[in-house]
Amino acid sequence: MLLEIILAFFIGSIPTGYLLNKYSGYGDIRKVGSGNIGATNVLRHSGKLLGLLTLLIDIGKGFLALVYLHNIYGFGEPEAIFIIGSSVVLGHIFSPWLKFKGGKGVATMLGVILFISMSCSDSNNYCYGYFWMSIDSNIFFITIFFWPSIYNIYDKEKKPALENQKKQNKFTFQGIDEFNQPFFLHAKKYQKIINNENKLLFEKPKAEINLREGKWLTMVAKEGIFDMEKQTLELMGDVLLLHSDGQQIDTNNAVIDLKKSKIYGNKRIFGKSETINFSSDGFEVKKTGKIFQLLGKSKIKIKNTK
Prior knowledge:
The chain has two domains: 157 residues, no CATH class; 134 residues, Sandwich (lipopolysaccharide transport protein A fold), CATH 2.60.450.10. Helix content is 36%, strand content 29%. Strands 1, 2, 3, 4, 5, 6, 7, 8, 9, 10, 11, 12 and 13 form a 13-stranded antiparallel beta sheet that branches. About 6% of the residues have low confidence. By secondary structure, the chain is α+β, with helices and mostly antiparallel strands. The longest helix has 26 residues. Strand 3 and strand 4 form a beta hairpin. The protein starts with a helix and ends with a strand. The chain contains eight helices and 13 strands.
């Protein structure tokens, strides 16, 4: 039974909407609309065809997983169907391929119910046994079914609503900080955030900042959110900082205050220069560019220069 449960979970965990959206050229479906990978969000932002395919494949996951496992292992008890069906739905909701954040499980659950319905006959008690098991079992199924909706109530404010992903262009911006030093922003693509007209979502942003006394900083990342009013850029994912003094920092999040020539981050960093390797819980580069400050728990290793 354990093997069937694990197989069912991994079949359910295949992120259909995410994969179809990404490899059809529409990008990451988690970054638009509700942020959900299900058919409804795909339909709204990537069209009817991808929405329909996502729906059918997600239903198929629930149905075919039970058909496949039933034909191989021959389980027939209502309790076994309940456990394996639950495992398929849980795999869809908590997909390990997306850091345990998947869809709502509605379509996959329909596939499970379809299997039960087609298996009903006078000679078995699938339907009766499945739908009239203990109250505890029903409460469990309802909980996993509605959990993503409950979670989204608290999480949806974190996800910016974006314009249609096809409306993307290259972005270039130039400005001057409080020290009258120029800075430059570049992005491969950008999208307007509908619920905040002052913010843009960047793809592969690059910031070039001139500091005082001839020093400079260059930063790149997978994504960024640029606040045009405050002139701040939050970099996210594979952030790389290069300083003219030779320091290099790798982290997952950093904020650039372009007006004040200040860069800081509160995520774990790993860095190096010609003479040292270092790590810390955060960092800050002072306005003048003279001081590079490590924040929180830090570790520095001096290299052998001989």
